[in-house]
Amino acid sequence: MSEKLLHKTSKAYLVFALLLLIVAAPLFYILIEKLYIDDADEALLLRKNEFIQYSAKNIKTTDVPIWNKFNRDIKIIAATPLKKDSLFYTFYYDTLYNENEPYRELRLPIKIEGKSYTYSARINLVETSDLIESIAILFLVIISLLLIGLFFISKRLSLNLWKPFYKTLLQIEQFEIDKSNLPQFAKTDTEEFNRLNQSIQKLIEKNTSIYRSQREFIENAAHELQTPLAVFQAKIDTLIQRNDVTQEQSVILSSLNDNVSKLNRLNKNLLLLSKIENDHYANKQTFYLKEAIEKNLAFFVEQANAKNISIKTDIDPSFTIASNPVLAEVLISNLFLNAIKHNVSNGQIAITLSNQTLVFSNTGSPSTLSSSKLFNRFSKSNTSEHGNGLGLAIVKKIVDSNDWIIRYNFNHNFHCFTIDFR
């Protein structure tokens, strides 16, 4: 599933922030703890120097109990096997907090009136769990503020920076090569977007020019072919009616006649498509669609009877459409032809017109058709089928030219073509 640019950048920022939190938080904790312990050790050594310089030379062995009584964190205790200064971690029960508290302690051997003692100074430390909790909360607050700030800043920036891009995208989405709505890209203050717009403009102009040339060629070719095909058809008809034509020649002429008829239908369909694309049927009238359906129904019932196909209708007589009557008749005619041509013997055709939708349903192939290619020119679901593959392409072109919608679905063994007039 595709994502918006803003979501992709926000996700990248979030991942980066989480990685930063995972890597930086432990490093920050180690650094803070080291600085904290170094500071505690420095304070303990300073107290030791003060004691040795100012107190050790004046204190007497009889003063030791009094010294210990009035100093909470500095004690003179009995001699221990220490030979040099010793710094270490330890825990003491703190009566103020009623719990064991971590301490950094310094011990060193001293002499008082020639008698050996041990000097002990300690500093209360912050508990490790408290330190970790404080650092975690601090980092979470910083990262959260950072992410929130980045999200709103990037969102605001993206909306402004990418606005020209979305305008270009909207115009491209609305562009149709067979319509005259060429996109007009406004100049922006971003070089990349200007280059993009210029490239798209050139591409559209080039392809539109090619498309118009091809459309003009098809229309001209269809026009030019009309007369030779009519003459060819007339001469074949003349030959078929002659009395001196042999049986073998008659078969060849019949085959030629069929192929010329196909060429005539193909030529007329191509010419019709070309005229629709060139807005030759732009004039619209409002009329009852029921009349157009019943006008064709009388003609196609005979063809349906030849394959023993039954036709059922359920038509709202009051429904009107605004369209070119010629195109509406071609639309209905092609839907009838499609429903009969691709039906089976003893099949069914159902035509319903209600709620501003016209549905042509017919039995036929017992599987769904590819709706992505169904309305393409010269697209055939079965290569062995007769026809030139332009019938549904003309239907789609007429639907598009009237801004209607056509859908295909296969439901309960019926191929359904639904035209939505809303």
What does the model show?
By secondary structure, the chain is α+β, with helices and mostly antiparallel strands. The chain has helices spanning about 5-55, 65-70, 130-160, 165-175, 190-240, 245-275, 290-305, 325-340, 370-375, 390-400, and strands spanning about 75-80, 85-95, 100-110, 115-125, 285-290, 310-315, 320-325, 350-355, 355-360, 405-410, 415-420. Helices cover about 55% and strands about 20% of the residues. The strands form 3 sheets. Strands 6-8-9-11-10 form a 5-stranded mixed β-sheet, covered by helices on one side. Strand 10 (about 405-410) and strand 11 (about 415-420) form a beta hairpin. The longest helix has about 50 residues, at about 5-55. The protein starts with a helix and ends with a strand.
Spell out the blueprint of helices and strands.
Elements: H1 5-55, H2 64-70, E1 74-78, E2 86-94, E3 99-112, E4 115-124, H3 128-161, H4 163-174, H5 191-241, H6 247-277, E5 285-288, H7 289-306, E6 310-315, E7 320-323, H8 325-341, E8 348-354, E9 357-362, H9 371-374, H10 391-401, E10 405-411, E11 414-420
Parallel strand pairs: 6-8
Antiparallel strand pairs: 1-4, 2-3, 3-4, 5-7, 8-9, 9-11, 10-11
Helix pairs in contact: 1-3, 5-6, 6-10, 7-8, 8-10
Mean of pLDDT: 86
Shape: rod-shaped
Largest sheet: 5 strands, mixed
Unreliable spans:
none
Q: In angstroms, what is the radius of gyration?
A: 47 Å
